[in-house]
Amino acid sequence: MSQTAPISNQTKRWQEMDAAHHLHPFTTHKDLAAKGARVITHAEGVYLYDSEGNRLIDGMAGLWCVQVGYGREELAQAGYKALKELSYYNNFFQTTNPYVAELSEKLAEVCPAGIDRFFFANSGSEGNDSAVKIIRYFWNLQGKPNKKLFIARKKAYHGVTMVAASLSGLTHMHPQADLPLPGFHHVDCPDWFAEGGDMTPEEYGLKTARSLEEKILELGAENVAAFVAEPIQGAGGLIIPPKGYWEEIQRICRKYDVLLHVDEVICGFGRTGKWFGSDTFGIEPDMINMAKGLSSGYQPIAAVGLGKRVGDAVFNSDNEWSHGFTYSGHPVAAAVALANLELMQKEKLVEKAGGATGSYFQKKLSELADHPLVGQTRGVGLLGAIELVKDKKNRTKFESDLDAGTRCRNHCFSNGLIMRAIGDTMVLSPPLTITEGEMDELFALARKCIDLTAKDLGVA
Ligand SMILES: *Cc1c(COP(=O)(O)O)cnc(C)c1O
Predict the structure, then answer these.
(1) C-alpha of residue 264 to centroid of ligand 1, in Å
(2) In the CATH hierarchy, which fold is given to the domain comprising 38-68+351-457?
(3) Most exposed among 77, 87, 169, 402, judged by the fewest C-beta atoms under 10 Å?
């Protein structure tokens, strides 16, 4: 922990219990045990509070998920009501519940055109795992059992289960579990800032889109089941595809009859200024995966949405579909997700992310581009990235052992801001409810922390 003041006995006690018994996601446990975990005890609006009374403005909406902000009464009440009336029952054995039926209809209303049947899971990873099983089943039903290979992209993040991690293209996720599994391939992604060289972003976008076509031809179109991709790559460093990229991808998928499964786990639910990233980029997916913003993180819930082609095949089959979780369509999670979507509609949060809130956020973000340490700012809706570089002109990065991104992130923590570092790319994804005043505070802190990082690195 970066605080200098002595910490309370209660905090110390929680840190000890945690260090002794809790395995954290994506964590080096030795380092964490030495430092002691930050204990977050409550949250309200866009602010988090830790056990030492520090307030942090949450520039990441948790993990890209708290669309409606923290502590909303409407969601708490919906969860409480469902917990009292139907704390649990499953959706196996010809049964449903009112909450999941109503949520399914609501999703059909807000999802991209044609996506109107939903399978529920508990996490984005399970959603992608389920999607892969659906796609394999689909091609078996079509009498094309050879179409089983999956193509995703380098730097993609699709989750951590064996299959979701195999789809993911962040290579540090693979060796510990000997992944990817056989049948999962990765092609280039449109990360122009890091890899585009002298090409224009559009040229580089087309080049990387065509790496999909090359891979399909190499594997044989008759063997390729689906292409899986996020509209904007989130955990890979907020990689925003240029104009023309998604048109070319869709042309290729149609030409070779490769299904397009779009992972909307981050881009869904207003994050890019429309309901889904597919709407923002003109994508017509065969199926989508959603989680995170679906419940604003208030309950664990995910959904795979099927378009007509795949949906009809599964719905009209005479076979029982052999898949489903104990908690698929859990009444409490469904009730909270439904209340979340209703609140987003009532407060016009998607319209605001695509309108006034999003414009103000993008304006404030672009103002950071004049900083000597900032090589580029980029964003869409309420997503933003800030590239920390050694040389602005040539997009030259700092030596990795300087840890520019981590330094900046640590300054943020110490100064009351949560901004994530992905390498030296600083990322923002605040709640959609953030006000102009709160954005002023967020960006003032961001500039201050970039200044402190520049000082550390001896720049300016
Ligand atoms: C977070 C994320 C996932 C995984 O979701 P979990 O709920 O953590 O399993 C999958 N895909 C994308 C694009 C994500 O950002």
Answers:
(1) 9
(2) Aspartate Aminotransferase, domain 1 (3.90.1150)
(3) 87
